[in-house]
Amino acid sequence: MTTLRVLLADDHAMLRSGMRAIFDTQSDLECVAEVADGRAAVAEVARLRPDVAVLDIRMPKLDGLGATEAILGDRANRTKVILLTTYDSDEYVYRALNAGASGFLLKSLPPEELISAIRVAARGDALIDPSVTQRLIARFAVSIAPPVTPPELSQLTAREREVLQLVAAAYSNAEIAAQLHVGDETVKTHVSRVLSKLGLRDRVHAVAYAHLNGLVTRRHPLPPG
């Protein structure tokens, strides 16, 4: 079993200790460092290159969003970033999406969901707290006017573009497969090709890209639930 190396950044020592204790119960997770501020997080990620960095949004010296932007601005760095917060501010989520974070989760979530999110991020997928996703996508769908179509979109086939639109509308692979009457593996292949052609990091980055470029329309409502 591959061990995932995790860095933890939070300015509250008790919270760090609690999360580390949770990680220690998992045979496939190793907490390689704990830090108390954003600058230290950036420095330790550069030094240790962990698989996943779990960052609190509100930290001294440099907040979690700034740290995320610095970490993911280094193209040579393959560390995935998950942001934790007690606030589900749309502005926070929007900046996290644009920075390329692989997860945006509320601190109130159960420990097993954080553990699952770390594994999801490590394999290159992404996760936003469901309560945040539905509101955020609904807001963007009506508030962002379509800009000029970026030229790289011409690389996508009609089906790939439709898959991107459904991903951006918060559909899961299974829901996309049902919508398009294809298999799950076919959907995964389409998603992989979309990310590759557009130079996108993961599904979260694809969601941000699609909304910023006006690709989500009323033809793609939110899935039920």
TrEMBL record:
Sequence ranges assigned to domain HTH luxR-type in this UniProt record: 149-214
Q: According to the UniProt record, list the residues that bear 4-aspartylphosphate.
A: D56
Question: Which keywords accompany this UniProt record?
Answer: DNA-binding, Phosphoprotein, Transcription, Transcription regulation
Show the InterPro entries listed in the entry. Answer: CheY-like_superfamily, NreC/VraR/RcsB-like_REC, Sig_transdc_resp-reg_C-effctor, Sig_transdc_resp-reg_receiver, Tscrpt_reg_LuxR_C, WalR-like
Q: Which Pfam families match?
A: GerE, Response_reg
- GO MF terms, alphabetically ordered: DNA binding
Keyword Acetylation appears in the UniProt entry: no
- GO biological process assignments: phosphorelay signal transduction system; regulation of DNA-templated transcription
- Domain called Response regulatory: residue spans: 5-122
| PANTHER family in UniProt | TRANSCRIPTIONAL REGULATORY PROTEIN NARL-RELATED (PTHR43214:SF24), TWO-COMPONENT RESPONSE REGULATOR (PTHR43214)
What name does the UniProt record give this protein?
Transcriptional regulator
Which species? Answer: Kibdelosporangium phytohabitans
